[in-house]
Amino acid sequence: MDTAKLLSWYRENRRDLPWRKTSDVYAVLVSEMMLQQTTVETVLGYYERFLERFPDVQTLAAADEEEVLAAWKGLGYYSRARNLHRLAKQVAAEDGVFPGTLEGWQKLPGVGPYIAGAVTSIALGLPHAAVDGNVLRVFSRADGIEDDIMLPQTRKRVEALVRALMPHDATSDFTQALMELGALVCRPVSPDCNLCPVADGCVARERGIVDKLPVKKPKEKQQVVAMWVAVVETPDAVLLEHRRDDTLLARMWGLPNAEKQGDRAAEELLKEKYGIRLAGGIPAGHTAHVFTHRRWEMDLVDYKLDVEFPVSGVLEWVSWEQFENKPVPTAFLKALRAAQRRTENE
Question: Which segments of the chain does DSSP mark as H helices, in order?
Fold first, then answer.
């Protein structure tokens, strides 16, 4: 791979992204945590708002977890927000000084090889590899690697290739150039080899197997969970469940729900689970949400009430004003919006 051509292409064609305008360690860390398993377009709507609310590691460390999750609301994969918060607390306890070595970063909560390599190469100028899906794809094609890219040994092989090519005076640009090449040119589908700055010498192109690489084992079959989801609301508030630690989306706020059991009614299952009596529900449509290994198929039931009824345990009435500051995950936001659209269309 011609490093000089890659860097030249990147400097002429890179996207104007806010996290590329800083080498501040904290800002780079926030961007990389957000960008894991999330598209650039989605992150653009969150990155600057998050930094405005939590401008430095001390501010983030001092915040409540629920406040951090609320700022993350809609980005998904909430363990990233919790890990970032835990990391901030640890760094703040050490006088707010981030590690200066790869080994130091790898000891922080939620920091794996990718985050450690990305932050140290982009923000600290250290020659460490940051290998994400884009980089794996680029090197599998450029070097004709036909091993499964999800295997640890394949990742280690690519990390070694990146380190061998990395110019020590341009670690930040090189790391981001590889990612940008995978995002804009060496795409998963319909890669544009004619625009590739390193097409010369690309093994996959020479062999005519670009569309066959990278090799990736099939995803595990998703578990499908059929659920009733209740939208219980008054003019002033909505009923939410504070999810337990042992559940998916733990410690976040969701709508009352129950996994379907044969032909048992939603009201019966919700009473059994929460001890609440509901009646007069109106079917409010269907929505679905996909997690990594699970898919929720949600049938919605809308309960419009004049006044609140007493609740206890994990349930709580939340005013519509408070709702905006609660960490409600996308799955439940989808359900609520679907029910509200039904009402608006009546």
Answer: 3-13, 25-35, 40-44, 47-53, 57-62, 65-72, 79-93, 102-106, 113-122, 133-142, 152-165, 171-184, 203-207, 266-274, 320-323, 330-345
Asked if residue 191 lies in contact with residue 210, where contact means CB atoms within 8 angstroms, the answer is yes
Total Cβ atoms within 10 A of residue 282: 14
3-state secondary structure of 167: coil
Q: What is the DSSP letter of 218?
A: P
Burial category of 112 from C-beta neighbours within 10 Å (exposed 0-12, middle 13-18, buried 19 and up): exposed
Per annotation, catalytic residue among 32, 180, 233, 267: 32
Structure tokens at 218: 């099939």
Please answer whether residues 270 and 278 qualify as being in contact, where contact means their C-beta atoms are separated by less than 8 angstroms.
yes
Rounded to two decimals, the pTM is 0.85
Residues facing 134 on adjacent strands:
none
pLDDT in tens, 56-99: 999 999 999 999 999 999 898 899 999 999 999 999 999 999 99
CA distance 93 to 324: 30
41 is catalytic: no
Cβ atoms of 138 and 181 within 8 Å: the answer is yes
Taking each helix axis from N to C end, the angle separating 171-184 and 113-122, rounded to the nearest 10 degrees, works out to 120
Tokens of 93: 């306890």
CA distance 250 to 314: 12
